[in-house]
Amino acid sequence: MIGHSCFGNDAWNLPEQRLELELLPHTESLFALSNGHIGWRGTLDEGEPHGLPGTYLNGVHELHPLPYAEAGYGYPESGQTVINVTNGKIIRLMVDDEPFDVRYGTLVSHERCLDLKSGVLRRDVVWTSPTGRTVRIRSTRLVSLTQRAIAAVRYEVEPLDGPARIVLQSELVANEELPHRHDDPRAAAMLQDPLVNDIHSIGDTRITLVHTVRHSGLRVAAAMDHTIELVTKNDGEHSDPDALGVHIEAEADLGRYTVGGVVQPGQTVRLTKFVAYGWSATRSLPAMRDQVDGALAVAMLGMGWDTLCAEQRDCLAEFWERSDVEIEGDADIQQAVRFALFQLLQSARRAEQRAIPAKGLTGSGYDGHAFWDTESFVLHVLTYVDAPSVAHALRWRHSTLPTARERAAQLGLKGCAFPWRTITGQECSAYWPAGTAAFHIDADIADAVIRYLRVTGDVEFAHKEGMELLVETARLWQSLGHMDEAGAFRIAGVTGPDEYSAIVDNNIYTNLMAQQNLLRAADVVDHHPGHAATLGASAAESAAWRKSANAMFIPYDEMRDVHPQSDGFTDHELWDFENTPPEHYPLLLRYPYFQLYRKQVVKQADLVLALHMRSDAFTLEQKQRDFDYYEPLTVRDSSLSACSQAVVAAEVGCTQLAYDYLAEAALMDIDDLERNTSDGLHLASLAGAWIALVDGFGGLRHTDDGLSFAPQLPKGWTRLCFGLVLGDGHLRVDVRPDDVEYLYSGKEPYEVRHGDTLLRLEPGTPVTRPLTPPKERPGPSQPAGRAPLRRAHDVVRATT
Amino acid sequence: MIGHSCFGNDAWNLPEQRLELELLPHTESLFALSNGHIGWRGTLDEGEPHGLPGTYLNGVHELHPLPYAEAGYGYPESGQTVINVTNGKIIRLMVDDEPFDVRYGTLVSHERCLDLKSGVLRRDVVWTSPTGRTVRIRSTRLVSLTQRAIAAVRYEVEPLDGPARIVLQSELVANEELPHRHDDPRAAAMLQDPLVNDIHSIGDTRITLVHTVRHSGLRVAAAMDHTIELVTKNDGEHSDPDALGVHIEAEADLGRYTVGGVVQPGQTVRLTKFVAYGWSATRSLPAMRDQVDGALAVAMLGMGWDTLCAEQRDCLAEFWERSDVEIEGDADIQQAVRFALFQLLQSARRAEQRAIPAKGLTGSGYDGHAFWDTESFVLHVLTYVDAPSVAHALRWRHSTLPTARERAAQLGLKGCAFPWRTITGQECSAYWPAGTAAFHIDADIADAVIRYLRVTGDVEFAHKEGMELLVETARLWQSLGHMDEAGAFRIAGVTGPDEYSAIVDNNIYTNLMAQQNLLRAADVVDHHPGHAATLGASAAESAAWRKSANAMFIPYDEMRDVHPQSDGFTDHELWDFENTPPEHYPLLLRYPYFQLYRKQVVKQADLVLALHMRSDAFTLEQKQRDFDYYEPLTVRDSSLSACSQAVVAAEVGCTQLAYDYLAEAALMDIDDLERNTSDGLHLASLAGAWIALVDGFGGLRHTDDGLSFAPQLPKGWTRLCFGLVLGDGHLRVDVRPDDVEYLYSGKEPYEVRHGDTLLRLEPGTPVTRPLTPPKERPGPSQPAGRAPLRRAHDVVRATT
After folding, report:
1. Which of A548, A594, A600, A629 should we substitute to test contact with B (largest number of B Cβ atoms within 10 Å)?
2. What distance lies between CA B32 and its chain's CA centroid?
3. Is A99 exposed, middle or buried, given 0-12, 13-18 or 19+ CB atoms closer than 10 A?
4. Which residues of A touch B185 (CB under 8 A)?
């Protein structure tokens, strides 16, 4: 699928050079705009044709019962699903009574471009209507990173070959009809007409709709307001827009502002639409209405379009200044990693104590749920490039602690048991062997807390939320494991990251992450005994955690001289890869769980993820042997795998393989490698692009001893440069073919390790060291047909 | 719960000496009559009050979708549930316009009695109506063991204190309203009004109703016919019943035959009702109607009530003659084991190539599904006491082979994968870790085949069904296991009998039963190469089976010197029994599966069942150690446990414990020990009473080397005598305090082992040997509060 010829290669843009209708579901996800609060899929302005209409507000969901043919104690009974809220994107156009629809008439040209520096989606179309009138249509769409409640569209129409009667209908639409979805168990459940109208009101140019979500009872308000201009091309002067007729109307599920009139060649009708959104579980109807009307007033009257756009550009400029990744020698990866960073920022910047779902707000896949993806992948990256977003996301987790404590108690455990999948904190996983049993999410959250604190030293967060998260997760492990007669601490009956195994004993990833969790929790309790006491944590408790952590059982297969992913894993039969045809992947759609669970087949990095995340717990020789053992078993039926494989491949000297995995992670969505980008972007894989570059080729590891690097470059690259925001400071790591330059900006000197060497970086003074890449080894093989696409540095995807 | 004072103690009857309304759901199950084809729960003749109305036809079921909040490949989509078919039991009575209802007026006396020799349920009531009229009501109910389609009721009313206007309404009722059932996941799902009427027709005294089950499309026909007599008490002469008025009517879901008139003291109205049932998935409506009308004609006109009753008694006399178990020294157990044998016979005798459900046809518990209970418990016993029923039951399994082959193929396996729970052969288990993964059912079916062939030598069955069952189940194991690099054959990812563990590796019970399955299948293939060839089985295939069987991996915990139930089991944390209050049992209703699975807690005999079923695979010392290890972990939250524990307890010298477990198995239903006998009888536990007696105290084991015994008696017993039907022969084993007498009847001499001694039994010549009971050992402990009730030989349950 690599190389959709409709995407141009551009370092700062994702351009689509012609419209391919069958790619609409895919491009709607790629061109989605979001600020973490509002999400607008990249549907065409006129609403159709479409793949999946999608307007999301972070946290707005509907409830539905979770059915079980055979119930069991502690099964979650209520599910949550993100819903498509009021669509404010739609602007319909009629040209001489012909509706503009790309499927009819002649599409002379159709270009779209996601501008990563400006943070807008642009569209430029020349269309000849079925009756022969040609018009140019340009639109610019923005979801504001600075004005949390605001999105806007500027829409311009210019007749090219004669006067045309132009009618524009700007709409707010609730309860849009959604397409029937496929039966893939991973695709979102659909819910019919979830919005019940409370208010529909109109002003001169403004319409406000307030709805209540039928079962969850959440209130959703949306309002739009408009400016209309008639611009004369040659002198740029504005004609009198009063020459255009205007009509405004609203009903329960529809608001419509209509402008129309005859427009001459050389004249452009310019409609600027401001949309405000708000939602609440508690606020009253009038308050909700005032909230969106107020936001609109600020954005439209106080700021206006140009200011909104300028703020957006400034915000991004600051981001790129500190956090850009520059690559020389691979234009595709350069584009892809910037796209990835842009989408990560979009998913998180204004999420503000809401979850960051696995697909952000770019689609309804996975029901809009957040998983461990957030902490283990998305926050892993954001910690170094946009740490305040991480604090927000972890504060959201912290806000769900009461629910997680209840869940732990229901399960007979201490501390907190965070949900495998959720919107508000309630467990929504209806298949516990791959949900509830995946307790590693507790350690993953703790790991994100630990990383955030290492990077930022944020004392307020540490005291307010950080310690409690570490303490409560440590309590879970202490109650989940047990000390056996021989003095080993064992954790039985859990599911690790690899979803092709379940309910196993002593999953090494889980045990090692729990070990770190217990030790770091013990540290904070010991260092802050007074504050710890408010959480009921004592030195005796922390001592017990240390004892468990230090006794953590890590199974080892002496016969095969490798780490088994979990007890007995390496005794299992090998999956019959040779007789598994390519169309049988992903395996979970073609084989029963029971077969997957009982054989040596790995959906996604698990032991290999442990090699990355707990790099300190393995020798290089162990990493090499383990990597060589698991590679031929790993089918990568999950997008949460390639980046970890890239990181370890790079470390153990399989540089080409690391490069191939990097490309897979980075191009997952742009090239739709899993053919489900239509459901929304794979945020974790986007994060994985950065992880593969920075942890992989940069060799970044972060422990209590600080940051360390072991940089190397893929063959053919001449540069990899990345910036890390470290609290008040900033570190730029610039890897060249022969050396690496570390440049730290900040108040105090900063120490990092370059390989085995400790470097003291004085602010503003670059330090250069030669590269000492690992000895290159032949890479292990992958299951038949499941090797990553081989990437050559001099082959870029076809462009038009 | 031991000792409901309403049950009298009687060696050949289960009498209820007064009516206790709150026990109705319980007694409806105890007093259920069945022949394996028709099942009538023991509801009162007048229909109410009732616990659960229940009329079942073996195989008649409704379909319903199985919902999954998260679907998975290979999950069964359609469930099957036994339905309550047309109720032909009802006879309503009015006395002077007052309906007879035990809740109103005065119940002077109310006795019921299940007569184990006559095979009828008798009732004898004296009732004074609210208006003061006293009548005697007697009824006798029968489901014919000899006339498969026929049930009948004789109902008599006699005014005691003056003339009364008596009206009798004999009914056929379809789509009875059923009570709401509790949420216990094990209780049957209820389905509303499943019957759609096709025919309702009336004759002079006959009504026929034919219905179609809404979704399954099965046709169900029921017909009733009547005789009416007016009997004068003193001379026994019949008055003219024409003095009574008669009315007959039918509509879609109701047939009603009404008889009424004034009856004098000394006169008895006697209504005899014959009911015929039939069902078919294929036969036409007229054929169905003719079928039941024909059956009625034979029963009523050709035979009549007295002949029906005489046949029933003769049939049972023959059964008891050969298969009775006699006990001296414990009247309760004597009564209980006869009740058990009677109910086993009822469940199976005329099942004729239909399943024997876990609850027979005595209730709708477990949706009327058959499980491994059938082969491992019910057929285990029936093989020695009513072998033709076993052939029928195994022919039913054989008839489902095409479905089981499809299921195996769907699961990626060879051979056949029999369903965990089913009515027709389709897998109906919606929770695969405790369903599909419990592949041991294949070996259990093979074990039943092996046992049946050992006992009967039935060559026709061996060639037609037996070999194919053995071959196809062996193929499953060969594909399910794998030979590891070290030459051990491992079976991973299965669930053994203990449902508090799941998806484990190398469950010892499963591996040992699979080993037997593979070896015996290899034997039949090698001994009958020509016939085997028709199944595609060759010497090469059987050699492969032998290789796997001989390499079967049996884990052993060297540190603790016991067999782990499965890999790693003994490394798990112990369940916290001390802090588990009594009301938290059964644990599955109060703890999540994930906790049960990851700890050392055993729902039901698993390794201990292996000690029993594969007694030959363990030394006595191993049995002692293993039994001592698992007893403190076993909570017996399943009725499939006590009997196996009794058997092994007896073998390892824990005689009192064996006795206690015997009592629990034997009294499970009579004393409602699990408080769910209302859903139907626990057939496996009823079978367990016999198993505990014969395999336990009789020490019966049956291998390729033949039958062996190691008899002993519980303290205080003076006799245990049981009969085994062995093909054309019969063996009576009569255990007395000091010796045992073996008496074989048959044509050829028969060899058995008494302990280590081989005895050659000449037909008709008793052989006596002294008892050599095992050295008595102190029994191991059980989880807190979960020890069986201690039974003393001189304490019998309270009787009135």
Report:
1. A594
2. 12
3. middle
4. 70-72
Q: Does the annotation mark B499 as catalytic? A: yes
Residue pLDDT, tens place only, B563-605: 999 999 999 999 999 999 999 999 999 999 999 999 999 999 9
Residue type, B332: D
- Tell me the Ramachandran region of residue B293: left when phi exceeds 0, alpha when psi lies from -120 to 50, beta otherwise: alpha
Q: Which of A62, A176, A499, A541 is catalytic?
A: A499
User: What does pLDDT average to in each consecutive run of 10 residues of chain A (800 residues)?
Assistant: 56 95 97 98 97 97 89 91 96 96 97 98 97 97 98 98 97 90 44 92 97 96 97 72 89 97 95 98 95 95 96 98 97 97 98 95 96 98 98 98 98 98 96 96 98 97 97 98 97 98 98 98 97 97 98 98 98 97 95 97 98 98 98 96 98 97 97 94 98 98 96 96 97 97 97 97 98 93 95 53
The CA distance from B403 to B414, in Å, is 13
Query: Which has the closest alpha carbon to A598: A609, A613, A587?
Result: A587
Residue in A closest to B433 by C-alpha: A594
Q: pLDDT value at position A1?
A: 30
Q: What percent of chain B has pLDDT over 90?
A: 92
CB atoms near residue B383 (< 10 Å): 26
CB contact under 8 A, B67 and A69: yes
- Chain B environment of A575 (Cβ under 8 Å): none
The candidate with the shortest Cα–Cα distance to A779, out of A622, A578, A628, is A628
- Is the dihedral angle over the CA atoms B780, B784, B786, B790 positive or is it negative? positive
Number of H helices, E strands in chain A: 20, 33
Q: Please give the Cα distance from A513 to B605 (Å, whole number).
A: 36
The DSSP annotation for B570-604 comes to GGSEEP-GGG--GGG-SGGGTS-HHHHHTEE-BSS
Q: Do residues A588 and A599 touch, judged by C-beta distance below 8 A?
A: no
pLDDT higher than threshold 80 for residue B187: no
Contact call for A593 and B490, based on CB within 8 A? no
Q: With contact defined as beta carbons under 8 Å apart, do B1 and B648 qualify?
A: no
Q: Using H for helix, E for strand and C for coil, what is the string for B206-254?
A: CEEEEEEECCCCCEEEEEEEEEEEEEECCCCCEECHHHCEEEEEEECCE
Task: State how far Cα B553 lies from the chain centre.
Answer: 34
ipTM: 0.92
Contact between B185 and A492 using a beta-carbon 8 Å cutoff? no
B79, B411, B567 ranked by CB distance to A592: nearest: B411
Q: What is the dihedral of CA A281, A284, A287, A288, to 10 degrees?
A: 50
**B477 has a pLDDT exceeding 60:** yes
- Amino acid letter for position B543: A
Of A430, A484, A492, the CB nearest to B70: A430
Q: What are phi and psi of B704, to 5 degrees?
A: -60, -25
The total of other beta-carbon atoms located within 10 Å of residue A117's CB is 16
Torsion sign (Cα): A604, A607, A608, A612: positive
Q: Name the region of A506 (left: φ>0; alpha: ψ -120 to 50; beta: rest).
A: left
**Would you give the DSSP letter of residue B302?**
I
Q: Are B515 and B481 in contact (CB under 8 A)?
A: no
**Rg of chain B over all Cα atoms, to the nearest angstrom:** 27
Q: Answer for the pair A427, A407: CB distance below 8 angstroms, yes or no.
A: yes
The per-residue b/e assignment along A725-757, b for 16 or more CB within 10 angstroms, e otherwise, is bbeebbbbbbbbeeebebbbbbeeebebbbeee
Q: Mean pLDDT lowest for which of B71-75, B162-166, B422-426?
A: B71-75
Per CB-CB distance under 8 Å, the chain B contacts of A554 are none
Could you tell me whether strands B599-600 and B573-574 are parallel, antiparallel, or unpaired per DSSP bridges? parallel
